[in-house]
Amino acid sequence: MRICDTWIDFVNLRSETYAENSRIPTMKFGTAEEDAYRRDLTINSLFYNINTNSVEDVTGRGIQDLKSGRIVTPLSPKATFLDDPLRVLRAIRFGARFDFELAEELKEAAFDEEVKTALANKISRERIGHEVDLMMSDKQPAKAMAYIHDLKLFYAVFTFPENLQPAVLEQCDRYCVLHINAAWALLQSIGYSIFSDEQRRLYLYASLFLPVRSTICIDKKSKEVPVASYIIRDSLKLKASDAEMVTNLHVACEKFVDLIPFLESNEDPEDLKVNLEDEYLEIPPASTKRVLAGLLLRQIKDFWRVALLISTLLHPKASHTCDSLNSHTELDRRREIFGKFESAITQLDLDHVWKMKLLLDGKAMMGVLQLKLGGPSIGKWQQRLLKWQLAHPNGTMEECIDWIKQSQAKCQKIDCSA
Question: What range(s) does the Poly A polymerase head domain occupy (predicted)?
Answer without folding.
Answer: 2-71
